[in-house]
Amino acid sequence: MTDFTTMQILAPVRLGKPLDVTVDGVLDRLRLTLVSAGYAASFVPSLVLAIGSVLCLALGPALGLGILLAQLVVPATAGLTAAHREVSGRLLGTEIRAGYAGSARGLRWMRDPARWRNVGFLWFSASGGFAMSLLPVALLTMPLTWLVLAVTASGWIWLVLLVLSGPALVAWWFVTPPLVRARALAERAMLGGSRVARLEERVERVEVSRAETLDHSAAEVRRIERDLHDGAQARIASVGMSVGLAEKLVHTDPEAAAALLREARETTMDALDDLRSVVRGIHPPVLADKGLSGAIEALALALPVPTSVAVDAGRLPAPVESAAYFAVAECLANTVKHAAATRAWVTGRYDGERLRITVGDDGRGGADAHGSGLSGVARRLDAFDGDLRVLSPAGGPTLVELEVPCRTP
To answer: What CA–CA distance (Å, rounded) separates 353 from 346?
Structure first.
């Protein structure tokens, strides 16, 4: 219940139509006022940590006490800014990443631009950000304060105070959504990392993903070679030997020669099945014939768990379809093996820019995103700069969200 309430409170800011006065509009502005009050309350820790950051610089070179103080201030600042990234990210409907260059041991944090942006955020939160967030709270509570004063006032003053309550509520109605959104945008600009840092992080991820993809490709080549050597190649060699013996016996013992040829024909069929099995491991024929949606539907039909499929993806580049197909197959295999689910589902769509697929089940939950199965899926998607997100609380349900950027011609 707490998680649901938190998600409702931190739902994305909707500016909407300011003149559309409805119950939903009032509840939404009350929600944003509560968020704004939380922003304003962070004034105290922000100011304390901002002063502490200045003391770290002042005491570090002279007495060495700054290093000790930084062991408290820098992690506390990272924790506070992480909370603000989470809140502002949810309000904006996006993820705000820190982009730290490394650890904060000793005075290493002084060489990290992201840590300096944290310090700048502390001063913003303790000054302009505090005033920005306090205004919606003040405008909402002002009429109540004046009402109390009006009750205790004498003469005509109470009437003046009541009249002034109306403009305060009107101002609160109009300024609350844009102010909360402006605060969230300001925090994203300060805490979201620079463009260079984001590019460096992306390049690093691509390098790691490339190395893992090369390792995976080499392992796949070795597997294919082993399957061909142990399966089709051995059977084809057997066919050659059988045909050679039949050739020698065709005149002296026709019946034995015919038996050898029948055996060779059966072995040829087995070799063909082996080759088809190898091909399916590389690129399933159903994927080439029916596309990603049809391939996932065919995959779901063979599962012992009832699985519904609603994927609207059209035809995508073959590498993307293959990666998404095997990722979904691994997720469904995990559902069958570990989830103890009574039903599962796969939903997804392609919006012209990104392919988004969700694999879910009503099982017992507790899926580990770092386990061997899901981590393998994540590595497969990393090759396409894709993302994997897992939501699997104890007791279920489990939701695995796959996202792959893909632009079709």
So the answer is: 20
Strands 354-361 and 307-312: unpaired
Q: Is 312 exposed, middle or buried (0-12, 13-18, 19+ CB in 10 A)?
A: exposed
Domains belonging to the chain, first-starting first, are 2-191 (no CATH), 197-282 (1.20.5), 285-405 (3.30.565.10)
At position 352, the amino acid (one-letter code) is G
Question: What residues contact 144, with CB distance under 8 A and at least 6 apart?
Answer: none
- Cβ burial of 217 (10 Å; 0-12, 13-18, 19+) is exposed
Which class for 245: exposed (0-12), middle (13-18), buried (19 or more C-beta within 10 A)?
middle
Q: For residues 360 and 344, is the Cβ–Cβ distance under 8 A? A: yes
- Nearest Cα neighbor of 102 from 130, 61, 74, 135 is 74
DSSP tag of 11: P
* Distance separating the N- and C-terminal Cα atoms of the chain: 45
Length of the chain: 409
Give Dmax over CA atoms of the chain in angstroms.
Answer: 132
Please enumerate in sequence order all residues whose Cβ is within 8 A of that of 395, keeping only pairs 6 or more positions apart, or say none.
Answer: 364, 365
Beta bridge partners of 348: 311, 357
DSSP state of 339: I
Question: What is the C-alpha separation between 261 and 238, in angstroms, rounded?
Answer: 11
Helix (H) or strand (E) holding 59: helix 43-63
Query: What amino acid occupies position 130?
Result: F
Q: Which residues contact 345 (CB under 8 A, 6 or more apart)?
A: 307, 308, 309, 310, 359, 360, 361
CA angle 225–228–234, rounded 5-degree value? 130
Grouping H, G, I as helix, E, B as strand and the rest as coil, residue 355 is: strand
CB 205 within 8 A of CB 199: no
Q: What φ, ψ does residue 298 adopt, rounded to 5°?
A: -65, -35
Q: Are 320 and 384 in contact, with CB atoms under 8 Å apart? A: yes
What does pLDDT average to in each consecutive run of 10 residues of the chain (409 residues)? 53 65 82 91 92 82 71 88 89 79 62 83 92 90 73 63 76 89 90 66 65 58 61 69 78 80 77 64 69 85 86 82 84 84 89 87 80 73 80 84 78
